[in-house]
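Comment thread on ticket #2218

A.B. wrote:
> Attaching the input chain for the structure job we discussed in standup.
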Amino acid sequence: MLQSVVKNQELIERCLSRLRQFDKMLSDADWKIIENLVEFLKIFRSATEVLRGATYPTISLILLFRVEIAAAVTESPNDCQVVKLTKQRMRQLLNYRLYADYRTTCCCCNA
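C.D. wrote:
> Ran it. Output below, let me know if you need it in another format.
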């Protein structure tokens, strides 16, 4: 949904302007936050689309996506404050919700 908002930014601004709803128009900083969130959330969209498949085993895919998610929640200098705070919180919860260690990885990968 946010991706659609970013894609239609010009149209949204034009419509709000015509309706004289200037108080509802987003600032450049707001648009930057939305763009940062869209970029950050891409890994979760990808993981959700792949893991919702019910006709193939997904445990090994979960471990692969966990690695990608762990990398995605690492802060970047380009992150806005909203994304930085979201990443910090998600890093704190990652091991609690999706704990993985060497033994789990070896078991799932048959290593």
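A.B. wrote:
> Thanks. Noting for the ticket: The chain has a mean pLDDT of 81.
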